[in-house]
Every structure is written in C-alpha cells, then in structure tokens.
TrEMBL record:
Belongs to the RING-type zinc finger family. ATL subfamily. This is RING-type E3 ubiquitin transferase. PANTHER family: OS10G0574400 PROTEIN, RING FINGER DOMAIN-CONTAINING. Its EC number is 2.3.2.27.
Amino acid sequence: MQRPPPPAGSPTNRRCMSRPTIPPSADPTTAAAPGPHSLHGAVPISIIFFFLVGFLSIYLLRDLVEYLASAWPAHRRGVEEGTPPNPRCPDGPRGLGPAALAAFPVRRYSSLKGLREGVDPETECAVCISEFDDDDPVRLLTACRHTFHQGCIDQWLASHPTCPVCRCDLREPPVKMATAGQGATAHGGGEEAEQP
C-alpha cells in the first residue's frame, strides 16, 4: 500500500522537493546542445513547404495575369496596334437586324394552322413554352417552318441568328415562294408548299 504524500508545508515535503530526482549529466554542455539528428526531419519538411508555396504562387500569379488580360478589351488593343481583332470577340450584335427580321411573316396563329397540310401544327411557342391562342400574332420562320410568338422570337433573334428549335441559320436572304394561297417567303432548305 502506498503512503499519501506529506502535506504541502511540512518539512518532509520541502526536503523531497529540494533533491533532484534525475542525476545530473557529467558534461553540462551535452545536455543543452541538440543532437546531430534533431533537425534531421525539419530540413526536408521546410524544403517541401517552400517548393509548394513557390509553385502555388506561380500558379496563382499565372491565373491572375490571364484574368487581367481577358478583362482588358483584347480587340481594342489589336486595333490600336494595327493587328486584326480577335475573331472570338465579334463586334456588334450577333443576331438578325430589323430588315432580316421583317422578312419573316407575322400572322395570326389561326391563319397558320392549315398552312402545312398533313403535318400537325405546333401548339406552343418553344421560347416561352406557352400554348398559342388563335388570335396570337406569331412569326413564321420560313426556312424551317417553325412558329413562335412574335415578341418571343423577335427577342431571341436580336441576339441569335438561328432558329431556337432546329438551329437553322436564318442569315441567308429569303427567297420568295408561293405557298398554298399565302404569299410567304422561304429560305433555302425550307419545305415547298403544294401548288394548287
């Protein structure tokens, strides 16, 4: 059985505390100086750390330079230096102009229902995904024969030169074609209407 330690202020406790429990080293300089292997693990870790920080800094600096270069208008720099502008950054609107847009007929939906016999008419606008009412003004893309609400397709074609359903290129000039009793225009590649 073990004895409890003496009380804190007793002479026995003071005597035990004044004696060293570990014998002193014969040479005091060897106890204070680190051994030859004490830094053995710290040097490689430090080297790896600095290489990682260096590579990360180079990577982030490269991304920052690319971001700043793309934020600056590259096509303006090219024009100022006398080189052609970057083809990936086209100038001006990419959609159809008002003249090209006016070439596509606008009609009431009820008048276009029987235009293509034997083919089910489209019942909803693919842009807004709303069903057509008989008195809705719709624009007929004559190249591919798709119909849309006039406001929906006009907004789409202001920024895109293609049909939103089939991606038919609508920048080609329209060619006049006679359709079944309707004077509509058609682009090359569209379906020809039956002659009466």
